[in-house]
Design goal:
Elements: H1 24-28, E1 31-35, E2 41-44, H2 46-52, H3 56-59, H4 64-68, H5 71-87, E3 91-98, E4 104-115, E5 121-129, H6 130-149, E6 153-157, E7 163-166, H7 168-174, H8 178-181, H9 186-189, H10 195-208, E8 212-219, E9 229-239, E10 245-254, H11 256-281, H12 288-299, E11 306-312, E12 328-337, H13 342-347, E13 353-355, H14 360-367, E14 371-374, H15 377-383, H16 387-396, E15 400-408, E16 411-420, H17 429-466, E17 477-484, E18 493-501, E19 507-517, H18 519-536, H19 542-554, E20 561-569, E21 574-580, E22 586-588, E23 595-596, E24 615-618, E25 624-628, H20 640-651, H21 658-669, E26 678-685, E27 699-700
Antiparallel strand pairs: 1-2, 1-5, 3-4, 4-5, 6-7, 6-10, 8-9, 9-10, 11-12, 11-16, 12-13, 14-15, 15-16, 17-26, 18-19, 19-20, 20-21, 21-24, 22-23, 22-25, 24-27, 25-26
Length: 701
């Protein structure tokens, strides 16, 4: 058997077996010497050679007192020998002996009388070098003190992993007396820990001899069965001086405070990570619903299994000055779940949810403070909208609820709700702090989006009110128009169009774009549209109309605008057009490819001091003209020439009905990443009025 392997026991032998060299007796080099009744040496052990220096052949048969004792001590030795032989009482003590090398050494003796089967009397002397014995005794005493007084738990287990020694500190840690450890296994004592892993680690140490240092384990012992503790455990193999494996030793240090501090640091880092993530992900747009979606996605699954955002239905119009005691009407904005669950579907079931004053979400918005509960059945009924919803929550395993008010500018907008089901930990103070921080950031973002949408809605309403309603049907023309405001993340601009009936069956077609956005741009657009209608009534040439509009625009506080003004005479099928910095219209002759009209250049309105020129071209029956603003073709990624060619290719496809053409152009050409307004005005000449054919090529009059 390998000396490093645990020695198996045989049933019934009590663990008996040959012990290899290196035990305590070998370490002490205990010698045995037997004297007959006359004091002569009759037995001499091999260890006596080392203690006294004489070989057996030198010592046997000689008188022990003369060989080993100085003359000054012989009388005393002879007296002690006679006393042991006469009385049979043992004697123990230290005595100086004479070593063969001439030196004097103190030897610890144990002397006793022996009687053989014939009745003869002998004296047995057991001797050990006193300095060696004192060193071993000192080492044992020191080891015992170190173990018993150590501030860490220490245990010694034999090769079968049974406790043979436990110090007082480990008694305290395990909550089991040392005596109840002895002879038992770790799995008998450490019933609430991962003892299989612990015993497996000790077996590896016994076999390989490689220590395992600072192994962390977390759990509970009988000393404190209600709270988790953390320990640093080290295992190392014990061998005697001869290399024989005698067991494995454990040292156990309670590191619960350090563990809690590390856990708290990890939680703090996690909170900071989530807050940083929320800062980057929440509020990326000025859309209320999208912002709410971003918030719940940040919270799931790290903070909650299910997250929801509900806003007060009255929040957009109401600034709360004091709490209310009545029910509240909530509008669900967003719900997210870490996994498919009917609880999430229950939160999304209604568009508007009236929660009574006894509901926790209502309490949250009335008090303006977080509400957290470890949910029992009664609590579930206060969380859910109805008894049916409470039953769904119970079935889904919901056990913990946290509601945090969404507050911005001292206004409670709604609540951020969090539920835990599979996550068995209840919400604690750290979770509340994190949720409050996330809700605070989201509340501001939602409020900004809400206010922006309100302003944008006002601007869009103004914009649409300033555009023509139902278009007139002028003589000799079919007309269609389209307006699409900017997306919610951008403000409404100042795009406009108009169809103005003129004298003698003529019609003016106008499209323009005020540079800028918001209410001011919409108001400026309204003023320019009104002025355009007034100048059109004067039957002025297009260039003259633009010149007057330019003067008006110069006085409108830094605003400039592009504009195209076209007049059409159905009797001659003749168009006159002038351009103020606008993109060129497209002429789509019947049966021929579309083309961009080549117009005399003109500066935008508001620049001032630039002349405008009128160009003429024919618009024969079946011909179309397409007027548009830059939101249709301009993008951030392609040159404008490429986009204009795309417009021509699109219009070169088989014709669609006039009233479908505008929407079709927007669907095909508008870049989804672009957020500008789009206005289109299309007109097609009809054969209602006789005319003489003319060259459709535009020319300057």
């Amino acid at each position: 058997m390998d000396v490093h392997e645990p020695r198996p026991e045989r049933e019934g032998d009590g663990g008996a077996g040959a012990a290899p060299p290196g035990g305590l007796l070998d370490l002490l080099s205990v010698a045995a010497v037997v004297l007959d009744a006359a004091g002569r040496i009759v037995f001499w052990s091999p260890q006596a050679d080392e203690v006294f220096g004489y070989a057996a052949e030198e010592a046997l048969g000689r008188h022990a007192a003369r060989l080993l004792v100085h003359e000054d001590h012989r009388d005393l030795v002879v007296g002690l020998f006679a006393e042991v032989m006469g009385t049979g009482e043992s004697w123990a003590g230290a005595f100086p002996i004479r070593h063969k090398d001439g030196s004097t050494r103190l030897v610890e003796f144990r002397n006793m009388r022996l009687v053989d089967d014939l009745g003869d009397i002998y004296a047995l002397g057991i001797a050990a070098d006193q300095s060696t014995l004192q060193r071993v005794e000192t080492d044992l005493a020191l080891s015992q003190r170190l173990v018993s007084q150590a501030p860490i738990g220490i245990a010694l287990l034999d090769t079968n992993l049974r406790y043979v020694l436990v110090n007082p500190e480990l008694e305290r840690i395990n909550g089991v007396p040392a005596a109840d450890h002895l002879g038992r296994y770790p799995h008998d004592i450490l019933t609430s820990l991962d003892v299989d892993s612990i015993e497996s680690a000790m077996r590896r140490v016994l076999l390989a001899g490689t220590p395992l240092i600072d192994q962390h384990t977390v759990g509970r012992t009988r000393a404190d069965p209600d709270h988790d503790h953390a320990w640093s455990v080290s295992h190392y193999r014990l061998e005697d001086s001869g290399g024989r494996v005698i067991g494995v030793a454990n040292s156990v240090i309670d590191v619960s405070e350090r563990h809690r501090a590390a856990a708290e640091a990890d939680r703090a880092r996690h909170r900071l990570t989530m807050i940083a993530e929320a800062s980057a992900r929440v509020g990326t747009t000025l859309e209320v619903e999208h912002t709410a979606e971003e918030l719940v996605k940040v919270a799931v699954p790290d903070l909650a299994d299910i997250a929801s955002v509900d806003v007060l239905d009255a929040a957009p119009a109401l600034r709360r000055s004091c709490p209310s005691d009545g029910p509240e009407l909530f509008r669900p904005l967003a719900v997210a779940a870490a996994y498919p669950t009917p609880a999430a579907a229950a939160l999304q079931a209604v568009d508007h949810a009236p929660y009574g004053a006894d509901r926790l979400i209502t309490e949250c918005v009335h008090s303006g403070r977080p509400v957290v509960v470890h949910a029992g059945q009664e609590d579930l009924e206060r969380i859910a909208l109805s008894a049916d919803t409470a039953a769904v929550f119970a079935q889904a395993g919901v056990h913990s609820y946290l509601a945090v008010p969404l507050i911005a500018r001292n206004e409670v907008l709604g609540a951020f709700g969090l539920l835990r089901a599979r996550n068995q930990l209840p919400f604690d103070e750290d979770d509340v702090l994190l949720a409050v921080d996330l809700a605070a950031r989201a509340g501001v973002a939602i409020d900004n989006a809400r206010l922006y949408q309100s302003v944008r809605s006002t601007a869009e309403t103004l914009q649409r009110s300033l555009l023509p309603g139902e278009l007139p049907q002028p003589t000799g023309l079919n007309v269609a128009s389209f307006y699409q405001p900017a997306q919610a993340s951008s403000e409404v601009g100042g795009d406009w169009y108009d169809v103005i009936p003129l004298a003698r069956d003529k019609t003016a077609l106008v499209i323009g774009d005020v540079m800028g956005n918001g209410i001011d741009a919409a108001a400026t657009m309204g003023r320019l549209r009104t002025a355009t209608s007034a100048f059109a009534d004067l039957d002025l040439a297009p260039a003259e109309v633009l010149r007057h509009l330019d003067k008006i625009t110069c006085g409108l506080e830094h605003y400039i605008a592009t504009c195209i003004y076209v007049t059409y005479d159905p009797h001659t099928h003749r168009c006159h057009i002038a351009n103020a910095g606008h993109l060129p219209p497209v002429l789509v002759p019947a049966g021929r490819p579309p083309q961009l009209l080549e117009l005399a250049p003109g500066a935008p309105l508001g620049v001032g001091g630039v002349a405008f020129r009128t160009t003429a071209f024919d618009l024969n029956p079946g011909d179309r003209i397409v007027l548009y603003t830059d939101g249709l073709v301009e993008t951030r990624h392609q040159p404008i020439d490429e986009r204009l060619n795309d417009l021509l290719r699109t219009l070169g496809e088989p014709r669609r009905p006039l009233d479908e053409t505008c929407q079709w152009l927007v669907d095909v050409l508008r870049d989804t990443d672009d957020h500008d307004d789009v206005a289109l005005l299309t007109a097609q000449a009809t054969p209602d009025v006789p005319h003489a054919p003319r060259d459709p090529t535009p020319r300057v009059d």
